Amino acid sequence: MGKTFVATRLIDAWRGGGFRVGARKPVQSFADPEGTDAALLAAATGEQPEEVCPPQRWYRREMAPPMAAESLGCPAFRVEDLLAELSWRTSDPLDIGVVELAGGLRSPMANDGDGIDFLEGLRPTGVVLVADAGLGTLNAVLLSVEALRSLSDPEVGIFVVLNRFDVGVELHRRNLAWLADREHLLVWSAPGGLSELAGDLARLRQEGGDNPGS
What we know:
Elements: H1 3-16, E1 21-24, E2 28-29, H2 37-45, H3 49-52, E3 58-59, H4 65-71, H5 79-85, E4 96-99, E5 108-110, E6 113-114, H6 115-122, E7 126-132, H7 137-148, E8 157-163, H8 170-182, E9 186-189, H9 194-206
Parallel strand pairs: 1-4, 2-3, 7-8, 8-9
Antiparallel strand pairs: 5-6
Helix pairs in contact: 1-2, 1-9, 5-6
């Protein structure tokens, strides 16, 4: 899907515009310790990877995090554990906080919940939904949007990004038009439309609450 790619490009745009940005990855599972999502996000924000993702939530196994933890013999953990561990610097307040989930919205984040359960506790101002621009994206996006609309906060903004978008590919153009014109979703292409999206999200954040991760 390219969540980390999109997140780092948005962070670059915000920092280039003078915003103070932090990133958090509540839990990650991986194969290559040199190229983890936390490391890539940290490189974009100027933080340390251990700030982005708590060291106890690094699982070196390419599986959904609770499955990876079980496979490695690590203790089980809950959604509320991840939420309790999520913190931001208080000495240098942020303008924008980015929280990247592990996998898709219905992928397990913890032993007792998935991405939707985590977002329910996080209560973000906006959610960026990253999907591939090609075949299958209409089904994936619409099912994910349906899941997001189940959140108890009806005001959460939903922003769809079609990644690896090629304007020369008819299917990509038609997928974007279908989601925007027929489903009335807010849709951007990546990488070309990310600067515009960054501006829209920055304005939404400035209208949001005090939590930088909202």
